[in-house]
Amino acid sequence: MAQCRRRAKFCFRDRDFFMDEEGMFFCVIGNVHPPKRVISYLKYIPERISKSTKWKKGKIGYNRILPYYSTVGVLSTQEYLSKKKPEYLYEDPFMNILITAVPVESIKVHFLPEERVKQIFSKENRDPLEEEVVELISIFSRECGIALENFGLTGSLLLGIHDPGFSDIDLIVYGKENSIKLLEQLPQLYESYDELELLSGELLERRIKDIARIYFLEPKIAAKLCRKKMDRGLFRGRQFSIHPVKTEAEVEERYGQKKYEPLGMITISCVVEDCRDSIFMPSKYSIREAKTIDDKSRPEIREVVSYEGLYSGIAEEGEEIVVRGKLESVKNVEDGSTYLRVLVGSFEAKGRDFILPKSWLRS
């Protein structure tokens, strides 16, 4: 496996990318992985260059096989892999689901987001998109006091298959403290820099429609979600997004430490007790005062976890939320202790699960 990296070998972080031996590009999900496998989803597959080709590198074109960013979209890529690369699908004994977890031995190149930033900053002949990357990261670094080494790039820019004419900037910030710093200062940065704008007009309306359609939400709720989340905006008219990622030292859970058992779908209301991990993948909210829609108390439900990035960082401590998702029993394999959690972003829910502030449902 070729290594575009200074990180420890076989250290895969959320939103890294890798290329397999057939030239397919996968995006890494989370920081915790089974032994000798990497949990991920397939995003781009190689194709012959034609007039309709949007992404390319040298003489190779790429087709984006992921239809949209959601669990349902990821499920469609698993259907493709079941026919082409069934060995990439893994029945996980701890999560009790079928996931895409590519064997490390099948990985040809591992792309590191932080190394791509260093490469672009040291590059003499940057394209227009790369110039904007340097400008945007420089603003965030200077205004928030975050070292350049704590930024990364993911998506087509990381892979070098981007097109300056239409590609977005998918930015990563590494570390809890750095992530909180940047997200907290974003509102002020939008006010201070004319180059930075929140989505508005036709772009915002299109995003609201997409969110409502993909996640089966009422348009007014989709609109509230889009306006609440400031981690997506425009820089010089180009869309950008910000994705917090933990470093290895900040990841507390180890693979195989917990075992999850499905207990069916459930809708609850609860109060957020701790939201510090809600900005990462997966998003985690510690909760209290959980009760079902028929007002039955469920104190054993202690956590809400989401693999849908849409629901990251949308609720604050002390806020009451309504959650629809898969109820799971969580057993700590080491000490035998158990509790319940609600998982949002399961394949079983097929996009019809959610985390929403209760106040939004009243208005």
Please tally the helical runs, counting DSSP H or I stretches of 4 or more residues: 8
| Most strands sheet | 9 strands, mixed
Q: Evaluate the radius of gyration.
A: 20 Å
Unreliable stretches covering 5 or more consecutive residues: none
Instruction: Tell me the name of the CATH class of the largest domain.
Output: Alpha Beta
Q: What do the pLDDT scores average to?
A: 94
Percent of residues in helices comes to 25-40%
What series of H and E elements makes up the topology? EEEEEEHEEEHHEHEHEHHEEEEEEEEH
Strands, count: 20
What structural class should be given to the helix and strand makeup?
alpha+beta
Describe this protein's structure:
By secondary structure, this protein is of the alpha+beta class. The chain has three domains: 2-111, no CATH class; 113-245, Beta Polymerase, domain 2 (2-Layer Sandwich); 257-362, OB fold (Dihydrolipoamide Acetyltransferase, E2P), CATH 2.40.50. It contains eight helices and 20 strands. Strands 1, 2, 3, 4, 5, 6, 7, 8 and 9 form a nine-stranded mixed beta sheet that branches. A five-stranded mixed beta sheet has the order 10-11-14-13-12. Strand 3 (25-28) and strand 4 form a beta hairpin. Helix 6 packs across helix 7. It is globular. The N and C termini lie far apart (53 Å). The model has no long low-confidence stretch (mean pLDDT 94).
